């Protein structure tokens, strides 16, 4: 089983994350930000990566540290669980429709973190979550996980649908990319021999 734990303690946040890449999408998520919990639950459910995420952050300041550090810890846990990335499919692409909204997510578990994020939000908050932190969540996750990540909302109207389709698209693309390819299960998927 490809599992990892990350414990991250700073003056701003205390975080415990456990992931199991070969899970069934079981989760227990508590960050103190309800909408962020809802999104991480979608990420787990649709990637089939089991995730326990517990963050106690300085929400009396604002939601920035809690959002950023939770993304970093989940990204670090995924990277640690992938190890030398032997046998993985490496690439994943998913279209995530949600009613009137459609988002495409394409990613490469490359070891070269990058984010392209194109999604228009027209409201300042979803639940209590500041929408300006959504792109920052994806950026922090991509950096920590070492993933080249492209997220593009193709069209949509409802802001809840747009952000949820971004997370569900990430989940489905990640599910493909972390999957062991049975035709090459013992090889690192790069002509360089490492990722
Ligand atoms: Mn929802």
Helicity, as a percent range: 25-40%
Number of domains: 1
Cα distance spanning the termini: 20 Å
Named once each, the bound ligands are: manganese (II) ion
Pathway: Amino-acid biosynthesis; L-histidine biosynthesis; L-histidine from 5-phospho-alpha-D-ribose 1-diphosphate: step 6/9
Subcellular location: Cytoplasm
EC number: 4.2.1.19
Keywords: Amino-acid biosynthesis, Cytoplasm, Histidine biosynthesis, Lyase
Give a quick rundown of the structure.
With 195 residues, the protein is of the alpha+beta class. Helix content is 34%, strand content 31%. The mean pLDDT is 97.
Structure description:
- With 195 residues, the protein is of the alpha+beta class.
- Helices cover 34% and strands 31% of the residues.
- It contains four helices and ten strands.
- The protein has helices at 34-47, 64-82, 132-145, 159-178, and strands spanning 3-9, 13-20, 27-30, 50-57, 91-98, 101-108, 114-118, 125-126, 129-130, 148-155.
- Helix 1 packs parallel to helix 4.
- The mean pLDDT is 97.
- Manganese (II) ion (MN) is lined by residues 38, 160, 164.
């Amino acid at each position: 089983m490809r599992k990892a734990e990350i414990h991250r303690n700073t003056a701003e946040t205390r975080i415990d994350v456990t992931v199991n890449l070969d899970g069934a999408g079981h989760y227990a998520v508590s960050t103190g930000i309800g909408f962020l919990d809802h999104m991480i639950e979608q990420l787990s459910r649709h990637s089939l990566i089991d995730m326990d995420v517990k963050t106690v952050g300085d929400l009396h300041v604002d939601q920035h540290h809690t959002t950023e550090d939770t993304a970093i810890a989940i990204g670090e846990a995924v990277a640690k669980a992938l190890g030398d990335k032997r046998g993985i499919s490496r690439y994943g692409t998913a279209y995530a429709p949600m009613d009137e909204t459609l988002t495409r997510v394409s990613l490469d578990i490359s070891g070269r973190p990058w984010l392209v994020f194109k999604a228009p939000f027209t409201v300042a908050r979803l639940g209590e979550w500041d929408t300006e932190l959504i792109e920052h969540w994806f950026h922090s996750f991509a950096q920590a996980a070492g993933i080249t990540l492209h997220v593009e909302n193709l069209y949509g109207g409802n802001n809840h649908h747009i952000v949820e389709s971004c997370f569900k698209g990430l989940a489905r693309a990640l599910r493909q990319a972390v999957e062991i390819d049975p035709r090459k299960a013992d090889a690192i998927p790069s002509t360089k021999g490492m990722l």
